[in-house]
Design the sequence.
């Protein structure tokens, strides 16, 4: 009897193991099938559209790399099933330490940095891909998650700097500063050496966040001016009390600024109207004086005109 029970238990355990292995193999086969199906679709599309062989090779190589790194699925799509708070905690775990090391964000509040990390997006670049080229508008900051990026001076065709894991580039691009000699365009190009995973922060997102964090806005502007001044990239004679860009202001602050501007315009119009009235009164007085003088000497003026003493 005991032998029968032992045999049954052994069979059940063996069946469980075989079933587990079968599930794993089936799941792996499904992943392989899905990958091959996508790959075949991409190959067919490129062949049908007569894409050049060089680009086809790059696309296939990039797609294979993304599959090997399990990055064919969108991060946001995967995380959307989680509560927003958990999504935020994951983002903080990934990016907060890096952001705290960025000089531009030093002494900023935890709440502001939390909002910033929620808006960071991931992008994969293949070998020799340009993240941007010299002359393009500067509106993004880059954080290297994995890989190597090379800063290229296009004028001299030389590599000015190399960025590796954890490095940041372009932090001054996410905030608008009057007197910034760097301007609004890129002075250099940024190129990926090999495959690179990069996190990107956009200027528009930072401006939107700053609308709700006025204290951090002042801190960020102060940090940016200090950084530019230390690099001799801030123009002299810039009034730091000048108005901040409207994109960084909250709706209430924008309305308040508009109200003040309307008040200034109203004051200018009142001054112009008062000046016009004063000038008009003076002109009327002069015209009246001329009319009286003409009435008094009308006969003499007429005779002078007839005699040719007065010419028009």
Sequence:
């Amino acid at each position: 009897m005991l032998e029968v029970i032992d045999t049954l238990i052994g069979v059940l355990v063996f069946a469980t193991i075989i079933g587990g292995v079968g599930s794993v193999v089936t799941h792996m086969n499904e992943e392989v099938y899905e990958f091959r199906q996508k790959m075949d679709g991409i190959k067919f599309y490129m062949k049908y559209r007569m894409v050049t062989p060089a680009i086809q090779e790059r696309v296939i190589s990039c797609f294979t790399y993304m599959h090997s790194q399990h990055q064919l699925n969108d991060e946001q799509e995967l995380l959307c099933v989680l509560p927003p708070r958990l999504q935020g905690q994951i983002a903080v775990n990934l990016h907060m330490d890096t952001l705290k090391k960025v000089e531009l964000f030093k002494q900023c509040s935890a709440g502001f940095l939390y909002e910033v990390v929620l808006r960071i997006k991931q992008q994969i670049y293949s070998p020799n891909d340009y993240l941007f080229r010299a002359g393009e508008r500067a509106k993004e900051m880059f954080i290297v998650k994995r890989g190597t990026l090379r800063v290229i001076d296009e004028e001299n065709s030389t590599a000015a700097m190399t960025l590796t894991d954890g490095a940041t580039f372009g932090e001054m691009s996410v905030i608008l500063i009057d007197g910034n000699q760097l301007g609004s365009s890129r002075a250099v190009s940024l190129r990926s050496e090999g495959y690179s995973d990069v996190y990107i922060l956009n200027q528009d997102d930072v401006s939107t966040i700053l609308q709700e964090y006025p204290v951090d806005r002042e801190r960020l502007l102060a940090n940016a001016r200090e950084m530019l001044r230390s690099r001799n990239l801030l123009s002299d004679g810039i009034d730091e009390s000048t108005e901040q860009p409207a994109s960084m202001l909250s709706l209430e602050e924008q309305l308040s600024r508009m109200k003040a501007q309307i008040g200034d315009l109203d004051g200018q119009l009142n001054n112009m109207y008062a000046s016009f009235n004063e000038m008009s009164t003076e002109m009327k007085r002069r015209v009246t004086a001329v009319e009286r003088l003409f009435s008094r000497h009308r006969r003499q003026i007429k005779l002078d005109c007839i005699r040719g003493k007065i010419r028009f």
